[in-house]
Specification:
Length: 221
């Protein structure tokens, strides 16, 4: 198993394990977790506007679809338990479809979800950005969200991000219900937000340089 967050509550000077799960507390992904994240996108990352929920692609629905200040679409895949390695393939499949979407289509999705035009929603969320000079949907980001992460997936996310600068991250949440009944949600990320922001400033398309010889590849200098 990869990264997992555990929490203890201090009661009368003693540490009490208060780790719980959404399932144990009768919470679930579509009716609780998705709305929490949609209404508080800062949990997912800074400068993200959610423009759609359960947005249909050729391969199935995207849990949450967002857009960031730079105009990149953000494909958000959510699991209420462990993030399996298959979640990455699923999100890449969605992203490959979203990459072909026009601004008009994104505008329709945004208007249906936010009840305002894409321009209105974007300018309201990112007041210091000039939408006219932003290339919308030129790049896609993927964010995987769960409560634990399969070790192989954590390794893949780190490798793709660190070695090739892929716009990919995984967020591990911890849901806690204290002895007093308060509900808490904490998070950690495979790739820190500071590193993510720096890479987006130097943004380029994901490209693995390949050689002409079968079975080998070389890195560009």
């Amino acid at each position: 198993m990869g990264t997992e967050i555990k929490t203890w509550q201090i009661i009368d000077g003693k540490l009490v394990d208060v780790n719980t799960s959404l399932k144990e507390q009768g919470r679930n992904e579509p009716y609780d977790l998705e709305p929490w994240l949609a209404s508080n996108p800062e949990i997912i990352g800074t400068d993200i506007l959610i423009i759609g929920r359960q947005v249909m692609t050729k391969s199935g629905p995207i849990d949450l679809l967002g857009i960031d200040r730079a105009g990149n679409t953000v494909i958000i895949e959510i699991k209420r338990a462990e993030l399996p390695r298959e979640a990455l393939a699923q999100a890449i499949d969605y992203a490959s479809d979203v990459a072909e979407w026009t601004v008009d289509r994104l505008g329709e999705i945004c208007a249906d979800y936010n009840k305002k035009t894409f321009e209105e929603a974007f300018n309201e969320a990112f007041q210091d950005s000039d939408l006219e000079n932003i290339n919308i949907n030129s790049t896609q980001r993927i964010v995987l969200i769960g409560f634990t992460i399969e070790a192989s997936l954590e390794r893949m996310v780190a490798w793709l991000s660190n070695s090739y600068g892929v716009n990919l991250n995984a967020i591990i949440l911890s849901y806690v219900k204290t002895k007093g009944g308060e509900e808490l949600l904490t998070k950690t990320s495979v790739i820190s937000e500071e590193i993510e922001q720096e890479r987006r400033r130097k943004q380029k398309k994901f490209e693995i340089p390949m050689s002409d010889e079968a079975g080998t590849h070389s890195s560009a200098a």
